[in-house]
């Protein structure tokens, strides 16, 4: 078994943890190995082994040959204390410590379960729900009690019919919990989009769900809280979707309970290995993920590993970048542009991508396009031949309504990943002809 690399910072949010073990120490599965120095959460060993090296950003553990199932249990406490002790952080996003989020003292409020699994091609969240729908509801009820909520809502996309049926069979006997169907567009997993869809409350970009008397928790995180409360289990493993240019086929390869710290290379090998040439390896989804390397470890927040097709060569053509708040930031768009071998000529932002005090951008109304004609005109005026856009489904549709007519060639930032996973490209939306038109369900179709 390869060495395990436990990063001291497991998500985008917070400060690195402080190691509390030293080189040569023997550790068990579940041994506490690092504790927070500020905003953060405990880190536990995901394997039995020996600490081989400690660097500025990680603890490297050489695993034993034998890896018993048994783990070191966290100490008992209140349910909230056990979630904190287990090191649970949001597993669908930036990794905010879940115990802090749940300490919300809501006034007859809501816990909203984000089961949107919004990034295209990912399946590990929905498969977990299909495998254990009762666990999701049980976990949600614990979280409602902790947060002071008297209502729980599971937000799930309408396309996930098997999971919905499995949940409905349980929810008919659960008056305090219901499920809400989300349209199949991107982004529906953004916290404020979940609040808007479930509660009809439109939050300003700088507002948290607490302003709507709610907390939003990713579905996988609910299961991790359940494990902490009922089994005293620390968060030491992760469910992952591996997908794309894989010799084993481009369908979703879902791995459950992968030890945190496992290398991406070994997971891809388990899926069948990389097939031929590839463009890049994306950690997370194709909209919000980043490019990574094969030797990097997975963390508590790694949702997916996508192996993409090679990039087209734009041969240095003048290219505009259209940046969305819910897609890649400017740095990521520039990273893609260099891989496409284009020349940065003009940068535009969706006008709803509002800059925040910390320099990040948040969408004013996620998924509801404000119009993109002016941006296309600006690209044209700057002499762009190509545009690489990172827009949501609705705005991609709007970009396509005017861009090609102006002679602009449009690429979406997810194209190389969508081609690899066999998903339609983000271009033009089409309202579904199915009986669910009342939900305005839309499918992405390739632009021809
Ligand atoms: S409206 Fe604009 S900023 Fe918001 S999600 Fe769509 S493209 Fe992004």
Give the SSE map:
Elements (H helix, E strand, L loop, with lengths): L3 E4 L10 E2 L6 E2 L4 E4 L7 E2 L4 E6 L3 E6 L15 H7 L12 H5 L6 E7 L8 H8 L1 H15 L1 E9 L3 H11 L5 E6 L8 H9 L14 E5 H13 L5 E8 L8 E7 L4 H8 L9 E3 L6 E3 L11 E4 L10 E6 L6 H11 L2 E7 L3 E3 L5 E3 L9 H9 L4 E4 L3 H10 L6 E4 L2 H7 L6 E4 L10 E4 L3
Parallel strand pairs: 8-9, 8-11, 9-10, 12-16, 17-18, 17-21, 21-22
Antiparallel strand pairs: 1-7, 2-4, 3-6, 4-5, 6-7, 12-13, 14-15, 14-16, 19-20, 23-24
Helix pairs in contact: 1-7, 3-4, 3-5, 4-7
Iron/sulfur cluster binds next to helix 11.
How would you sum up this structure, described in words?
The protein is α/β, with parallel strands linked by helices. A hairpin with a 6-residue loop joins strand 14 and strand 15. The protein is globular and about 65 Å long. The C terminus is likely disordered. Iron/sulfur cluster binds next to helix 11.
- Provide the CATH top-level class of the largest domain: Alpha Beta
Q: Please describe the biggest sheet, giving its number of strands, its sense, and whether it closes into a barrel.
A: 5 strands, mixed
Main sheet strand line-up:
13-12-16-14-15
Would you identify the CATH architecture of the largest domain?
3-Layer(aba) Sandwich
Radius of gyration: 22 Å
Number of domains: 4
Q: Which small molecules are bound? A: iron/sulfur cluster
CATH superfamily of the largest domain: NADH-ubiquinone oxidoreductase 51kDa subunit
By DSSP (H or I, 4+ residues per run), the number of helices equals 12
Helix content: 25-40%
Contiguous low-pLDDT stretches (5 residues minimum) are 432-448
What fraction of residues sit in β-strands? Answer: 25-35%
Number of strands: 24
Query: Span between N and C termini?
Result: 47 Å
Note the overall shape: globular
CATH fold descriptor of the largest domain:
Rossmann fold
Mean pLDDT: 94
């Amino acid at each position: 078994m390869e060495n395990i690399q436990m990063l001291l910072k497991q998500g985008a949010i917070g400060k690195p943890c402080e190691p509390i073990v030293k080189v040569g120490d023997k550790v068990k599965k579940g041994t506490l190995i690092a504790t927070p120095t500020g905003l953060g959460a405990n880190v536990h060993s995901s394997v039995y082994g020996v600490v081989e090296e400690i660097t500025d950003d990680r603890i490297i553990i050489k695993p034993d040959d034998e890896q018993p199932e048994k783990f070191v249990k966290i100490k008992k406490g209140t349910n909230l204390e056990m979630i904190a002790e287990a090191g649970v952080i949001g597993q669908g996003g930036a990794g905010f410590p879940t115990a802090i989020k749940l300490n919300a003292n809501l006034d007859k409020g809501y816990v909203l379960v984000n089961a949107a699994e919004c990034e295209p091609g990912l399946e590990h969240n929905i498969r977990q729900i299909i495998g254990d729908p009762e666990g999701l509801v049980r976990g949600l009820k614990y979280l409602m009690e902790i947060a002071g909520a008297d209502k729980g809502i599971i937000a799930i996309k309408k396309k996930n019919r098997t999971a919905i049926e499995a949940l409905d069979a349980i929810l008919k006997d659960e008056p305090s919990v219901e499920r809400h169907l989300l349209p199949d567009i991107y982004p529906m997993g953004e916290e404020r989009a979940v609040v808007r869809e479930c509660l009809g409350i439109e939050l300003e970009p700088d507002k948290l769900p607490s302003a709507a008397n709610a907390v939003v928790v990713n579905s996988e995180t609910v299961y991790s809280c359940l494990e902490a409360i009922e089994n005293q289990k620390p968060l030491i493993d992760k469910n992952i979707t591996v997908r794309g240019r894989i010799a084993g086929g481009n369908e979703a390869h879902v791995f459950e309970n992968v030890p945190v710290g496992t290398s991406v290379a070994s997971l891809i090998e388990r899926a069948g290995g990389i097939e031929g040439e590839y463009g890049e390896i994306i950690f997370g989804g194709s909209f919000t993920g980043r490019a990574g390397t094969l030797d990097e470890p997975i963390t508590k927040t790694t949702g997916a590993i996508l192996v993409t097709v090679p990039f087209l060569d734009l041969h240095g053509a003048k290219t505009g970048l259209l940046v969305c708040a819910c897609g890649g930031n400017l740095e990521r768009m520039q990273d893609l542009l260099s891989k496409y071998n284009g020349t940065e000529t003009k940068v535009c932002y969706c006008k709803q991508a509002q800059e925040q005090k910390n320099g990040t951008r948040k969408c004013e109304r996620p998924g509801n396009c404000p119009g993109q004609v002016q941006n296309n005109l600006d690209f044209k005026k700057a002499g762009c031949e190509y545009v690489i856009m990172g827009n949501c489904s609705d705005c991609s549709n709007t970009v396509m309504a005017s861009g090609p007519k102006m002679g602009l060639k449009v690429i979406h930032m997810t194209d190389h990943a969508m081609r690899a996973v066999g998903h339609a490209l983000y271009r033009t939306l089409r309202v579904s002809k199915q009986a669910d038109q009342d939900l305005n369900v839309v499918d992405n179709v390739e632009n021809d």
